[in-house]
Specification:
InterPro entries: Ig-like_dom (IPR007110), Ig-like_dom_sf (IPR036179), Ig-like_fold (IPR013783), Immunoglobulin_dom (IPR013151)
Organism: Argiope bruennichi
Order of helices and strands: HEEEEEEEEEEEEEEEEEHEH
Number of helices: 3
Distance between the termini: 101 Å
Shape: rod-shaped
Strand order of the largest sheet: 2-9-8-4-5-6
Number of strands: 18
Helix content: 10-25%
Largest sheet: 6 strands, mixed
Keywords: Signal
Protein name: Ig-like domain-containing protein
Pfam family, one: ig
Structural class: mainly beta
Amino acid sequence: MESVQSVPLRLLVLFLLCVSKCLSLQITRLSIPSFVPNGSEESVLLDCEYTYSLKEDKKLVVKWFHEDDPNPVYQWIPELDVKLYSEKFKLDEDYIIPSGNDYTRSRAINILKPTTELSGTYRCEVQSLEGADNMEDTMTVYALPTSVNLNYSISDGVVRVVCEVENVFPLPEMSLFQIKPKTVAKSPLNDTELEYELVDGAYDLEFSTTIPEDDLPGLSDGPTFFGCSVEINGTEYSKEFKVPYFPNPVAEKQEGDDSDDDDDDGSATIAGVAPLIFFLSVLLLSLT
């Protein structure tokens, strides 16, 4: 049976172990912004706070890594005050923590004008002869689209709806929908396809679907709209774009008005004064 005297001794040992761990090398806080606008920030600070013991933690080294690259973005040896930088990143080499000391003042990295290529996971590693610790988090440098274009074409009895987005990062959440006549409800368009290309750190993409022309309302039923929603998660960017749908005879007539080419391949796109023709037609129908 355990004696009463041994209980306080065990508590003392546990306390000493806890104190020893708390005083040893340990990362206590990693400060990395989750979302940063592309190119619009003068600099972005990534900080790595840690505790250490001057007596035990000899040869302290702080390293920052990006994604799976085994080579550090930045390395600092406090005892020698030596700093090593990666050519991949443009860092403020003069930045120091205002409240830091000889072993903490250069622990952070200050990235100048971050662009989308610098998105990803960042890992801070702190090492000494007595121990090591690491912590990581993700930063996304986002780019809002420079243009969004929603259109459709009609060919061989099939309507193809296309939403084109240029220069966006990361890939946005998107949906296509239809607003039927005499309603404001959005009906999702399914069987969508996404094609995209990464160019200079941003995506150009095409989000599309096809619908049999016979499945769509005619002109006499009232106005029909196609819509596209674009949203970038983690940001406030969320927009919808709409375009009126004109059945094939109206669209073909409009194409003939806009082109001198007599060849007709059966396809059509909305353009020019087609919206005026459409709404005048709806108005006349409503008066009869």
